[in-house]
Amino acid sequence: MNPPPDSVIDIRVAEIALFAGGVVVTLMVVALAIWLFVRASREEREQVERDRREAERRRACAEGRDPGSGGAA
Questions:
Q1: Which residues have a Cβ under 8 Å from the Cβ of 61 and sit 6 or more positions away?
Q2: CB distance 61 to 67 below 8 Å
Q3: pLDDT digits (tens, 9 = 90+) for 42-51
Q4: Residue 19: φ, ψ to 5°
Q5: Does any domain span residue 41?
Q6: 8 A C-beta contact, residue 65 and residue 73
Q7: What is the rounded CA–CA span in Å between residue 22 and residue 33?
Q8: Per-residue pLDDT tens over the stretch 3-33
Q9: In 3D, which of 59, 58, 57, 53 has the Cα closest to residue 68?
Q10: Do the domain assignments include residue 53?
C-alpha cells in the first residue's frame, strides 16, 4: 500500500522533468509539422504555377504563336 502524500501536491522532481520533457518534445513536433506544411504548400504553389506556364506555352505553340514573344503574334 502507498503511504499517504505529505501534501496536496506530492510531485517528484523526476515527474516534473518527464512532464517538461514531454512538453518540449510536443512543441518541437508541432513546430516541425507546421514547417513541413508551409514548405509543402509553397512547393505546391510553385508546381501549379510551372504547370500553368507550361500549358500556356503548349497552347501558344499549338496556335502557331511564338511563346517567347509574350503572347504577341
A1: 67
A2: yes
A3: 999 999 999 9
A4: -65, -45
A5: yes
A6: yes
A7: 16
A8: 776 676 777 888 999 999 999 999 999 999 9
A9: 57
A10: yes
Task: Give residue for cell 502524500.
Answer: 5
Q: For residue 26, is it within any domain? A: no
Residue 36 maps to a domain: yes
How many folded domains does the chain comprise? 1
**Distance separating alpha carbons of residues 24 and 7, to the nearest angstrom:** 28
Domain that holds residue 51: 31-61
- Amino acid (1-letter code) at residue 55: A
SS (H, E, C) the chain: CCCCCCCCCCCCHHHHHHHHHHHHHHHHHHHHHHHHHHHHHHHHHHHHHHHHHHHHHHHHHHCCCCHHHCCCC
